[in-house]
């Protein structure tokens, strides 16, 4: 009788291992969407011009407004970023001194569009 009980317990354990819950399969990677862009606000050139110092620096690049204040201290060109603080920086931004990564970096500073 003991042998039968042990055999049943053994079969139960083996069955649980074979037919029991399996480890979850790896979840397929989903394509990550870029973070949603902030709501676009419209600024006049006069409004942008008020932000023209090292501690409050906005620039315009192709009719888009960027608050680059947090980046001023990190700018590899030093204070050259301040030459057009509060004004249009498109020409300098697209100059040969900038690596292509700058085009991706600037998006994090986007705050709105220039109102004409």
Automatic annotation (TrEMBL):
<dbReference type="InterPro" id="IPR001199">
    <property type="entry name" value="Cyt_B5-like_heme/steroid-bd"/>
</dbReference>
<dbReference type="InterPro" id="IPR018506">
    <property type="entry name" value="Cyt_B5_heme-BS"/>
</dbReference>
<dbReference type="InterPro" id="IPR036400">
    <property type="entry name" value="Cyt_B5-like_heme/steroid_sf"/>
</dbReference>
<dbReference type="InterPro" id="IPR050668">
    <property type="entry name" value="Cytochrome_b5"/>
</dbReference>
<dbReference type="GO" id="GO:0020037">
    <property type="term" value="F:heme binding"/>
</dbReference>
<protein>
    <recommendedName>
        <fullName>Cytochrome b5 heme-binding domain-containing protein</fullName>
    </recommendedName>
</protein>
<dbReference type="Pfam" id="PF00173">
    <property type="entry name" value="Cyt-b5"/>
</dbReference>
<feature type="domain" description="Cytochrome b5 heme-binding">
    <location>
        <begin position="40"/>
        <end position="115"/>
    </location>
</feature>
<keyword id="KW-0349">Heme</keyword>
<keyword id="KW-0732">Signal</keyword>
<keyword id="KW-0479">Metal-binding</keyword>
<dbReference type="GO" id="GO:0016020">
    <property type="term" value="C:membrane"/>
</dbReference>
<comment type="similarity">
    <text>Belongs to the cytochrome b5 family.</text>
</comment>
<feature type="signal peptide">
    <location>
        <begin position="1"/>
        <end position="16"/>
    </location>
</feature>
<keyword id="KW-0408">Iron</keyword>
<dbReference type="GO" id="GO:0046872">
    <property type="term" value="F:metal ion binding"/>
</dbReference>
